[in-house]
Amino acid sequence: MTAWHASVLTLFPEMFPGPLGFSLAGRALREGRWRLEAIDIRAFATDRHRSVDDAPFGGGAGMVLRPDVVDAAVAAALAGGDPARPLIYLTPRGALLDQAMVRELAAGPGCILLCGRYEGVDQRVIEARGMREVSIGDYVLSGGEPAALALLDACVRLLPGVMGEAASAEEESHAAGLLEYPHYTRPAEWQGRRVPEVLLSGHHAEVARWRRAEAERITRERRPDLWAKRAAGGGATAAPDCHGRAEPPKRDARKDHER
Ligand SMILES: C[S@@+](CC[C@H](N)C(=O)[O-])C[C@H]1O[C@@H](n2cnc3c(N)ncnc32)[C@H](O)[C@@H]1O
Predict the structure, then answer these.
(1) Per residue in 200-245, pLDDT tens?
(2) What is its main location (predicted)?
């Protein structure tokens, strides 16, 4: 089987693998479970100054990455791997990255990620190449590289054989539209704070009930948006049961009433 393949188009190829060379992702990279190549956008500049950007038409601050240079870098990435890999431009204007998108990307052949810098990338190459625009959050980074690292980290840990215990992916935050319950380890008492008694009881069903209730409480308190989506039975927001297996999505109470 061919390894999941990530190509990152960047002006700073030396930033990769960076943190992805460590821990789970680093080991998986060394084991060949995924492949990473950083493609230097500047290598596709054609003038003698090797310029990759220019001033924006219409005026304004900052510089814009040129479409011809970016396009040539994209062509090289496509030629060097499965052309079916999604081509993603990381941008604060994109669709918010969530666990459903991560799962979808991890299940595919890999991805090609374009990291912007300065004011961003000329719109024409984004459109001409049909790029999917993805944001990692409602804030502005100085470049797409930290966003690419975050997206790749999230995908790689879901690849087969990367995480030790498959169950941990099923139970963790966002796996089923809930944030995760709190964790505790030894010592059972620390600075006068006791671990919740139920966790010491050895009663698996009680532990599972407590974890489920905590996951629901935390989601309700911290992320009313997720909670509302779950209550509305929104798509992939099924709740995990006590073993992390997903139940079918909850039905919308109003629709039930109408039936
Ligand atoms: C300074 S930002 C450009 C911001 C752009 N002028 C705007 O207001 O939308 C430079 C680059 O960082 C990356 N970037 C910044 N914030 C990001 C985010 N939240 N998610 C993904 N990429 C981001 C993008 O690749 C972007 O082209």
Answers:
(1) 999 999 999 999 999 999 999 999 999 999 999 853 333 343 223 3
(2) cytoplasm
Angle value at C-alpha 86, between 21 and 65, nearest 5 degrees = 80
113 marked as binding residue: no
pTM strictly above 0.70: yes
Domain ranges of the chain: 4-156, 166-258
Distance 92 CA to ligand 1 centre (A): 5
Contacts of 232 (CB under 8 A, 6+ apart): 252
Q: How many residues does the chain have?
A: 259
Q: Report the candidate in 226, 245, 250, 243 with the shortest Cα–Cα distance to residue 174.
A: 226
Q: Which residue has the tokens 């960076």?
A: 18
Alpha carbon distance 237, 97 (integer Å): 15
Where is pLDDT greater, at 149 or 257? 149
pLDDT at residue 167, as a whole number: 54
259 or 102: whose pLDDT is higher?
Answer: 102
Cβ of residue 102 lying under 6 Å from some atom of ligand 1: no
Element at 94 (helix H, strand E): strand 87-96
For strands 64-65 and 53-54, give the pairing.
antiparallel
Nearest ligand 1 atom, CA 119: 6
Q: What angle do CA 180, 184, 188 make, to 5 degrees?
A: 160
Confidence of residue 255 (pLDDT cuts 50, 70, 90): very low
CA neighbor of 162 nearest in space, from 98, 106, 232: 106
Q: Please choose, from the candidates 46, 35, 100, 101, the residue with its C-alpha nearest in 3D space to the C-alpha of residue 72.
A: 46
Domain 4-156 has CATH 3.40.1010.10: no
